[in-house]
Amino acid sequence: MQHKKNQTLGEFIIENQASFQYSSGELSKLINAIRLAAKVVNHEVNKAGLVDILGKAGETNIQGEDQQKLDVFANEKFINTLANREIVCGIASEEEDDFITINSNDERHQNKYVVLIDPLDGSSNVDVNVSVGTIFSIYRRVTPVGTPVTLEDFLQPGNQQVAAGYVVYGTSTMLVYTTGDGVNGFTLNPAIGTFYLSHPNMQFPENGTIYSVNEGKYIHFHQGVKDYIKYCQQEEGDRPYTSRYIGSLVSDFHRNMIKGGIYMYPKSSVTQEGKLRLLYECNPMAFLAEQANGLATGGKTRIMDIVPTELHQRVPFFCGSRNMVEKLQEFLDKYH
Over the stretch 234-248, which tens digit does the pLDDT of each residue have? Predict the structure, then answer.
């Protein structure tokens, strides 16, 4: 994987296309489409406090959550931008009830990739000016080229992903992605609309001192998770650890990858299956974590080995610095 100072995202894709196991031109188109949509969404996120795009759209998504207006905008922008490129044969969005079939321009269903996307993760934070993000996951279709996509194309385990990443719309806007050859981060220069390589070869530190979990729900957690949280709070060695929880998966993950930490969204007595979605959130983040020397587990199984059974499936999710996840696993295994 080559890295150069002041390298743009476009230059990086072209220079490193040999490391992608499939057609480089197709991947370039796909990442470029995501880059373009991210810039448009970034523009809207940054002016969200100035216009009436804030607040709720009056609709509820498939998850039963009120859709923020910006959610709807981001969803439309990513779907339209991806659909207009001659590469994607299907899109599944956290905001849509069902997957969307996209025919190729010759109307012969020649496109090879499906994209699963969480268009605006953490959107409830928009109106309080806290970072939000976009998460994406890319697979090659498994049904024959020349036919419309089916549910089977989307219900693939995470270990079949060919690329995944996220955009974090924060104090600066970053696009972070992997194609299975490490993780690289690109920061947007808003003055000229160009992403520059700013964080080459991103890695989780093996050890961390941050734990990210909604401790307000502690009472509902599995005993193994409770025990691990208590371990994090004990005064011993480099503990107690620091508790940091933004409530925006992209932001929490991004900080922990840079500084070293663990993110936890366990199942509970209230959410028996967990809350995060396997296909739109957990799989892409797990792919990034493993490519950045971290780990991601559902508690019993590696996240990327879970075979999905439905489009909006939820699972428990733990990911971050390798030694922290392994330590958590020790506590979880006591009760299995």
Answer: 999 999 999 999 999
